[in-house]
Amino acid sequence: MFQETILQKRDQFTKIFDQLTHSISWSVDKRVRMSITSQFMSTERDFDPKAYLYVIDFIKREEGWFSSLPYNTRYILAALLITQFEDPYKAYSELKECYEVLTNNKFRKGPYTYLSAFSLLTHKKENGNLAEQAQRAMEIYKAIRSRHFFLTSSDDYPLSVLLSQSNRSIDSLMEDIEYFYDFLSKHGFRKGNDLQFLSHILTQGQPERRVQLAETTARYLEAFQSEKVKIKGMHYPALGVLALIDTPENTLADVIKAYSHFNESKLFRWYKDMSLLVAIQLYVQQIIADNSVLSVGIATSIQTILQAQQAAMIAVISAGAVAAASSSNGGGN
């Protein structure tokens, strides 16, 4: 079924991307626009440029001049609110409450705490206390940082919030994270923040299947490489998501075919790294929609992981743009 719709999805992606570009600005990094388009592709709702701009303007007015929310993150946040909630304006007010709860529990103000607030909003424990969940998320973050001090920063906030929903002990979660990190670093994955992100993602699997899950993730890397697809650190989280869903034997052919189709598009001609991410994301979203085998919990977690990955990538792109601008402005001194 996926192969029957992939060309249609490619055309739909291009259409939304063009509408989005005309709605915001050509000056916004193309990869950011692609990531936002991917978010809108995750829903069956039609993209409404006017409604999107209204939400962006609403957030801008509510945040004020001295907000710690960068404009690129504002764009992705507006997309998340529109695609995940019937009333994005009400959801924004609830998100701000979550944001305040997090900052009251020592999360630093900034874009990643906004994204963490979204994760908290969409993963509230049933009948749970937001303050207690935020406190547990900070304890998880500190535990991660104590083990990988130089790798851990505010970009680990969103997944710390996601992990806080687990009823497992923090020591048990840390043990799994370390296991995945060590195993995969010995099986072709480069040590660093991308591998740490991947290790966090894999803890969403069943603890008793961690050996199988680690081996499956390593097989994905080998399988893509055997197809001459270059895997970079930015793709690591996507491999983890695929491993949570199924094995390479059952998924790779569809993903590679989708990747090839997207590469044929003019839009992706010089952005093959993004082409692979989009192909995997669309495949995963189709599987979640069609597959009743996946539990609601894991399906929801996977959606949040994809959103966190997109948001983290946008933050990295934005930081690079700021650094480049600063370098350019200071180059003559």
UniProtKB/TrEMBL annotation:
Domain of life of the organism encoding this protein: Bacteria
InterPro entries: DUF4003
Descriptive protein name: DUF4003 family protein
Gene source species: Paenibacillus residui
